[in-house]
Amino acid sequence: MFLVDTKVDVQYDNGGVKMKRIPNAVYTKEFREEAVKMVTEGGLSVSEVGRRLSVSSSTIRYWLNADREDALSDVGKQQKPLTEIEMELARVKRELAQVKMERDFLKKAAAYFAREPQSGTQ
After folding, report:
1. 70-103 burial, b for 16+ CB within 10 Å, e for fewer?
2. Contact yes or no for 93/20 (Cβ under 8 A)
3. What DSSP assignment string belongs to the chain?
4. Which residues does 50 contact at the CB level (< 8 Å), separation at least 6?
5. Tens-digit pLDDT profile for residues 16-60
6. Does residue 119 sit within a domain?
7. How big is the chain by its Cα radius of gyration, in Å?
8. Is-contact 60 42, C-beta < 8 A?
9. Hey, how many other C-beta atoms are within 10 angstroms of the C-beta on 67?
10. Structural domain tally of the chain?
11. Most buried by CB count within 10 Å: which residue of 2, 62, 68, 118?
């Protein structure tokens, strides 16, 4: 499945990574169409799609209603489009967050396997 970049805010605390949606995020036409397809063709619930994409359920429902009325392509036309720099920044932020999560996982795994074996195990 192909998903399009959106604006995200990445926060780091206590060795973890939290990605939050920016309140007035700009979603591309393709992103909205993919979200609608996940519900209509993918068989996922609105809340599940919202959780997976970090978009509120009410926004997904709005897109579904617009799609039923063949007006999904008109949604978001009043918003200014993202510049290439903004899209690249969002992509790099997501990539950095992913790499940090992988790094933290590997640190924890290395610490787990470096522990002394417990009695009764080999």
Report:
1. eebeebbeeeeebeeeebeebeebeeebeeeeee
2. no
3. -------EEEEEETTEEEEEE-TT----HHHHHHHHHHHHTT---HHHHHHHHT--HHHHHHHHHHHHTT-GGGTTTTSPPPPHHHHHHHHHHHHHHHHHHHHHHHHHHHHHHHSPPPTT--
4. 56, 57, 59, 60
5. 655 555 555 667 788 888 888 999 998 889 999 888 888 889 988
6. no
7. 19
8. no
9. 19
10. 1
11. 62
Task: Please indicate, yes or no, if residue 42 is contained in any of the structural domains.
Answer: yes
Reported as a single tens digit per residue, the pLDDT across 58-112 is 988 988 888 888 877 767 666 666 788 888 888 888 899 889 999 999 999 999 8
| 2, part of any domain | no
